[in-house]
Amino acid sequence: MSAGGDHIVSPKIYVTIWLILLAFTGITVAAAYQNFGIFNPIIALTIACTKATLVILFFMHVKYSPKMIALVIGCGLFFLSILMVLTCADYLSRAWIM
Amino acid sequence: MSDSQTTTLQAHHHHDPSLLVQFDTAYQQKDASQFGMWVFLITEIMFFGGLFGAYLIYRNLYNPAFVAASTSIAIKWGAINTAVLICSSLTMAMGVHSAALGARKLLVFWLGATLVLGSVFLGIKGIEYYDKYTEHHIPGANFDFNYDRAEKGEKLVPADVATQTSIFFALYFAMTGMHALHMIIGAGILVFLIWRAYHGAYPPHHYTMVENFGLYWHFVDIIWIFLFPLLYLVSRSPVH
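Above: the input entities. Below: the structure tokens describing the complete assembly.
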């Protein structure tokens, strides 16, 4: 587990992450008004995933936490991907047998 | 005598009331507590995952309805609320930071700021829900997507698409409503934390409760980070 002791993260890092998150919010709104065709949802979700990763790593301290926490999150995302992929494999392929 | 036994005895000698008997050290207790919090958050990811999965399927099946319905909700409020939640995550992180430093008054201040921002978010959500109510966009007997679109100079959508938009709105209210419920529960816990923190219940060697609540609050922020583009930004470009 952890080496023992709290890693005190500098408020400067928090403020930097906060500014990046606000900037990404502006970018995702601006991008939504442009027509990138199929890439619109891909851009929106890429920005959302980047924002979520920043929150998890810095605000939620996972960057400074025991590796086991990262493993728990990895397991969760793996099961989420099973939920999404297998559901899509069903629904998106139903039209093929018509 | 092994190291862990020595530590246990020392801990008991110090009579640290915050260290439970099943743990050797405060760090072990804290790690176990955070591990448990993360496992809980994973179950929350799976819970919201079901809603996101339903959204994914219906967005594929009824894309024109999703475009029409998403464009009818006010992007202004959604974007402001995203910024409000991101600010509340910063104040929450600063709260945990203050707790780690043992700054009691600052901890109370940052938790208070988080509560205020959380309440602002819920207030704005209330305005949005009220707008949807007056527009007859709440699924049910009075649902009529085209209700006042002509008066407001918006394009009427074909009857079949108008009916299908109720699927988007059902998901919109289920997802934002479940998110808002998490915010309301979070605000309630915040009131408790502020009261306890004011009375000095979270010294620097024992503030796991504040830290774990921080994890919960940031998690609720992350859910919104995904809800915002999926519900408000389906398609805003004029070509569609």
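Note for the figure: The CA atoms of residues 179 and 220 of chain B lie 7 Å apart.
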